[in-house]
Each structure stands twice: as C-alpha cells, then as structure tokens.
Amino acid sequence: PNEIGPGVYDIHSPNVPSVEWIEALLKKAAKRIPAERLWVNPDCGLKTRGWPETRAALANMVQAAQNLRLG
C-alpha cells in the first residue's frame, strides 16, 4: 500500500526519454517518497505510440530503474 508510480514518459510526445532524464525524475521523486515505494511507469497507456518508440522508452525506463537500484 501507499506506493506511487510517477509518470516518467509523456506518451503524447514523440520524444523517447533518455535514461538520464528518467533517472533525474526518479531522483527528484525519491527526495519526497522512499525509493522502495516508487514504481517506474509511463504517465498513461502507450496506445498513442508506435512499437519502436515504445520499446525504446520502456528499455530506458528499465535501465534507469536498474541504475538507481545499484546506487
């Protein structure tokens, strides 16, 4: 309970967020919310994006989360 998933990928933008961009957003959120309560997710469903950009964005989200977990 009491977990939150700040949207780190604007699905209405054609830009794929970089790993560094996502990490910066997660670090900002972690200043207020304990990291163990944070979930990494896009801001909404991905139906407005094509597969190539969706895969790239999700891969960057995974990499950013892994980087932060490793400290």
TrEMBL record:
Any idea where the Cobalamin-independent methionine synthase MetE C-terminal/archaeal domain is?
A: 2-67
Reported cofactor(s): Zn(2+)
- UniProt-listed Gene3D superfamilies: 3.20.20.210
Identify a single GO molecular function assigned to this protein: zinc ion binding
Query: Which Pfam families does the record associate with it?
Result: Meth_synt_2
**Record's signal peptide:** none
One GO-annotated biological process of the protein: methylation
Top-level taxonomy: Bacteria, Pseudomonadati, Pseudomonadota, Gammaproteobacteria, Enterobacterales
Give the protein's recorded name: 5-methyltetrahydropteroyltriglutamate--homocysteine S-methyltransferase
Q: Which domain of life is it from?
A: Bacteria
Q: What does the UniProt keyword field contain?
A: Metal-binding, Methyltransferase, Transferase, Zinc
